[in-house]
Amino acid sequence: MLSKRGLKWAAVPAIASLSLLLTGCSTEEQRGFLPGTPGITNHTDMITGLWTTSWIVLWAVGVISWGLMAWAIVVYRRRKGETGIPAQLRYNNPIETLFTIVPLILVIGFFAFTAKDIQAIEQPTVNPDVTVQVVGKQWSWDFNYTNANVYDSGIQSQFEGQKGSEASLPVLWLPVNKTVELDLTSRDVIHSFWVIDFLYKKDVFPGRWNHIYFTPEKIGTYKGKCAELCGEFHSMMLFNVKVVSQADYNAHMAQLAAAGNVGQLSTSYSRNANLPGDNPEIRG
Known about the structure:
Blueprint: H1 4-22, H2 44-75, H3 93-122, E1 130-137, E2 140-145, E3 150-153, E4 159-160, E5 163-164, E6 171-175, E7 180-186, E8 191-195, E9 200-204, E10 210-214, E11 220-226, E12 238-244, H4 246-258, H5 280-283
Parallel strand pairs: 1-7, 6-12
Antiparallel strand pairs: 1-2, 2-3, 4-5, 7-10, 8-9, 8-11, 11-12
């Protein structure tokens, strides 16, 4: 029978595992070791490849390290009858060189491959098929479809008990297999535009524009949210992205026009119109 001390130490891994389980993502947002579904955008496979390759390299290094630790524990363990302190070494040049060179190679390698992929993801698309202005606001999103000269204004997600109402969420419509440019700005505070399955997010700042370039390659509805703590109802700043055929996209643009949503929502709704960066009279 385990002693109280033994039970206490045995409970540590159980409590740690339970904590990870209870604080983890929901099944709809779980990514694990293989993030995302293949081919959602032209960038997701590249991002997944970098992620999984990094894990493979790190697991290989970990297995080697754990193997060397186990070998040292077994080979250099205290034998029966041995007493005193084993021979002490002040340094070991080969081992210290190894422990310096290997992490340096890993850091340089991860940096190089990450920089290469980021450069490809951030490369601007010349003459994109679709350009949408995405405007963050406390606590929802507006979408200006500049090519079609229509807009859609979202409201904060409406909750019924513990379940959100999908019908209340703003929806960004995009045609499949068309190059897309999203121009991001904010009307009030810093937000972050994150479509979970696209495996990419970007901050949304007041008074400046950020840009995302990609091509959606798989029809479907994808969940999005604000990923930057932006105030009291940050958790309700949700939206969906609907990737559809060109015909369905055109039909939706026509529906917005028929509903009177013609033109573009201007920056006159910004709460920061009195800031020096936004007011020419103050800026001088």
